[in-house]
Amino acid sequence: MKMPNTSPDTITSPIKAIRAKCLDCSGDSAKEVKLCTVETCALHPFRFGKNPFHKGRKLTEQEKRERAERLAKWREEQKQEA
């Protein structure tokens, strides 16, 4: 069975490819992916489309402010374009 949205143009990362494979293995059911019991599968830890071994980066307060300002500026630009 061919899965929708699994062309090379729509899968943008290895993690998303793993998620697509898990959905394929589970009959396109996200619920079945969540309930997957095949813990010996090498893809099992990645089945939710996230890398469980990737530790999030802690931002400083200054970095948070800078990113918030940049986001606010971008949103304002988007409003003006619309």
Describe this structure in words.
- The protein contains three helices and no strands.
- With 82 residues, the protein is mostly helical.
- The protein starts with 13 loop residues before the first helix and ends with a helix.
- This is 50S ribosomal protein L31.
Chain-wise SSE layout:
Blueprint: H1 14-25, H2 30-34, H3 61-81
Protein name: 50S ribosomal protein L31
Organism: Pseudodesulfovibrio indicus
Biased composition (Basic and acidic residues): 58-82
**Count of strand segments:** 0
Order of helices and strands: HHH
- Total domain count: 1
Portion in strands: under 5%
Parts with pLDDT < 50 across at least 5 consecutive residues: none
End-to-end distance:
41 Å
Number of helices in the DSSP assignment? 3
Global shape:
elongated
Largest sheet: none
Overall pLDDT: 88
Question: Which structural class is indicated by helix and strand composition?
Answer: mainly alpha
Radius of gyration (CA) equals 18 Å
Summarize the amount of helix as a percent range. Answer: 40-55%
Concise structural overview:
The chain is an all-alpha fold and 82 residues long.
Key phrases:
82 residues; mainly alpha; elongated; 50S ribosomal protein L31
